[in-house]
Amino acid sequence: MNPLYANLPTTIFEKMSALARETGAINLGQGFPDAGWPRDVLEAGARALTEGYNQYPPMPGIPELRQAIADHYRRHQAVDLDWQSEITVTSGATEALAASVMALVSPGDEVLLIQPMYDAYLPMVRQAGGVPKLIRLEPPEWRLTEAALAEAFSPRTRVVLLNNPLNPTATMFSEGELALLARFVVEHDAVVISDEVWEHVVFDGRAHSPIMAQPGMRERTVKIGSGGKIFSLTGWKVGWMCAAPRLMHALARAHQFLTFTTPPNLQTAIAYGLGKDDGYFTAMRADFARSRDRLASGLDAAGWKTLPSAGTYFLSVDLAASGIALDDVSFCDRLAREGDVVAIPVSAFYAEAPVTSVVRFCFAKTDATIDAALERMAKAR
Ligand code: PMP
Ligand code: GLN
User: Name one GO molecular function term (predicted).
Assistant: First the structure.
């Protein structure tokens, strides 16, 4: 057995969802919306399923989807991609991450990881033989500084794994932070694997800024997206990776022996969805922002100290500032068992020196679910 995987604990998302199933608690842990799915996208998928889109599609993804991704990014982010040579469809962003790490990290390469980080990153980097170099962000601002980058980069730095907007902090890196990071990447002749699955879930008039658009980064970025996130259909696992042909050549070789392909009916539906007009995306953001505000104002009114949420499905509570002496893991455990609400301890997103006083809640829920959770949270103080 490979001890790296044999010794891994179950991912926090599955662990906390299992706890919710076991205790009957309201699940504000794992990030998935419990309503608001676009009916027309579902119907497009169902139609494709019954109309014959069920055999192996082309390995890089169906042309309609690759074209739709290129059109979509041109329209929404002013990023120009050649659909034939620069886009590969994957089984979720997770496969795109795995393929990127497999293809770009060689044993001994230093890989920069920014904590808190999505829990899948580190095992992938280790399995590839990469040497993780960790940068630590701290609440409440979670900002990336020049000093931290200067300390982390070395002549052996080959890859940076970036997540923007950032799960679990619900922050977005500023133009200044992205420009700074890009400067270091170019100077060190490195590449960025940029996990942008939350690119459409941003609030209060903010616009997502792809690091690929920074000077010198067009040829040095793998931009990763997720149809599941964009259309609130997290179980669909239709993702993609976009990169210049030089990088895509290797990424596509990794993809061909990971999954080879992704269900064609779901690809057809996501291609349809990406073509929806701007109104759909604006309304989706407004709906999530309303849910965010509902949860935040309810928590604030009950005396919980919440941190701002600029994007993602998430909102955090600072336990220490809320007068709770427990660490995040003990608090989440107690909350699940006594308060009947499940949340995610943010320390699970750190490999070392964890922040232990912040807890993440998912607000992508119906008003009734949010209100029921708030009632229970008021009693948990
Ligand atoms: N990266 C981040 C930062 C995520 O939050 C998630 C899931 N929410 C993923 C990747 C995985 O995306 P997918 O379900 O498309 O594999
Ligand atoms: N990305 C989701 C979250 O942050 C979870 C995905 C998963 O369960 N693997 O909650």
Answer: kynurenine-oxoglutarate transaminase activity
Question: Quick one: 239 exposed, middle or buried, by C-beta within 10 A (0-12, 13-18, 19+)?
Answer: buried
Q: Is the CB of 237 under 6 A from ligand 1?
A: yes
Beta-bridge partners for 87 = 242
User: Quick one: 154 and 264 in the same domain?
Assistant: yes
Same domain? 158 vs 272: yes
Ligand closest to the CA atom of residue 226? 1
**239 close to ligand 1 (CB < 6 Angstrom):** yes
116 Cβ below 6 A of ligand 1: no
Q: Is residue 154 part of a domain?
A: yes
Ligand 2 centroid–CA 30 distance in Å is 5
Residue 378 alpha carbon to ligand 2 centre in Å: 26
User: H or E segment at 245?
Assistant: helix 245-258
Q: What is the Å distance from ligand 1's center to 295 Cα?
A: 23
Choosing from 251, 276, 301, the residue where a domain stops is 276
Judge contact between 163 and 195, C-beta under 8 A: yes
The residue contributing the CA closest to ligand 2 atom 4 is 31
Distance CA 305, CA 302 (A): 9
Q: Which two structure tokens, joined as six digits, stand for 115?
A: 């904590």
Are residues 288 and 270 located together in one domain of the fold?
no
Q: Which ligand is nearest the CA of 168, by number?
A: 2
Print the domain residue range for 345: 3-30+279-379
Q: Is 311 in the pocket of ligand 1 (CB under 6 A)?
A: no
**Each residue's pLDDT tens digit in the chain (381 positions)?**
999 999 999 999 999 999 999 999 999 999 999 998 999 999 999 999 999 889 999 999 999 999 999 999 999 999 999 999 999 999 999 999 999 999 999 999 999 999 999 999 999 999 999 999 999 999 999 999 999 999 999 999 999 999 999 999 999 999 999 999 999 999 999 999 999 999 999 999 999 999 999 999 999 999 999 999 999 999 999 999 999 999 999 999 999 999 999 999 999 999 999 999 999 999 999 999 999 999 999 999 999 999 999 999 999 999 999 999 999 999 999 999 888 999 999 999 999 999 999 999 999 999 999 999 999 999 888
In a domain, 43, yes or no: no
| C-alpha 315: how far from chain center | 14
Classify burial at 67, counting beta carbons within 10 Å of its beta carbon; exposed 0-12, middle 13-18, buried 19 or more: middle
